[in-house]
Amino acid sequence: MIDVVIVMDLTGSMRPWKETMQQTIAKIIDQFLNSVNGYQVRVAFIGYRDIWDNEEKLVYWSFTKKIDEIQDYISKLEAKGGDDEAEDIVSAFELALKLDFSHNPDSILCTFLIADAPCHGGDYHNIESDNLIDKMPKNYFEDVLEKYKQIKKNNFLCCVKINNRTDIMFQKMKAVMPLMIITSEKKPEDLIEVVGFTLRMSVTESKKLKSQINNKNLIFQSRI
User: Fold this and answer.
1) Nearest-CA neighbor of 96 among 48, 39, 132, 64?
2) Where do the VWFA domain residues begin and end (predicted)?
3) CATH assignment of 2-223?
């Protein structure tokens, strides 16, 4: 089983990305399933805006194998809101922690963060437009990511770079999750390639990890 979590900024500037995702998610998953054998895929979607957007700051759809449900749900969402430039990314990952992940120890978690702005807090960016620039606890994002990293041993995170404003935040995230992928600067039409490649890579790397663990177990048993 592969659990795919899409975490996406849904403020106004992200409209082209939202529209591309709703148009291509089914194609992305179909192409991936045709390229590998023996895997099932479940997809969850979390959209976030900002703290000031009240009840609409977080929207989500839990894991489903019916990709058309996700596609239909995303199509009904609106990219809007946002006050300052920084956004409430951390709340999205806090919500992700509550999803019903597969309990299979060999299952894979593949998460995509699609964001054109950093989270709140002066440690995560060098922009001026952050109403909470000096009000966020030290390492508050890293603490949440540390919990997220513990969900599975096969845990892969891909951050889709849209501009340079997220660079500092991405590097701090990578310090917590060393296997995290940070793409080069991308456009909406690149989503099919980025997501498809990352899914295939997650399968390859999880097989390598399993082989390494099995080899270590054999060495340990031989020493006994």
Assistant:
1) 48
2) 3-213
3) 3.40.50.410
**Which residue type, as a one-letter code, is found at position 31?**
Q
Count of residues in the chain: 224
Angle 101-104-110 (CA atoms, 0-180°, nearest 5)? 50
Name residue, tokens 């809101």: 81
From CA 21, how far away is CA 191, in angstroms rounded? 7
- Check: CB of residue 44 under 8 Å from CB of residue 99: yes
What is the DSSP secondary structure assignment for residue 159, as one 8-state letter? E
The rounded distance, in Å, linking the Cα atoms of 44 and 22 is: 13
b/e for 59-71, b at 16 or more Cβ within 10 A?
bbbebeeebeebb
Q: Do 88 and 57 meet the contact criterion of CB atoms below 8 Å apart? A: yes
* The pTM of the whole model exceeds 0.85: yes
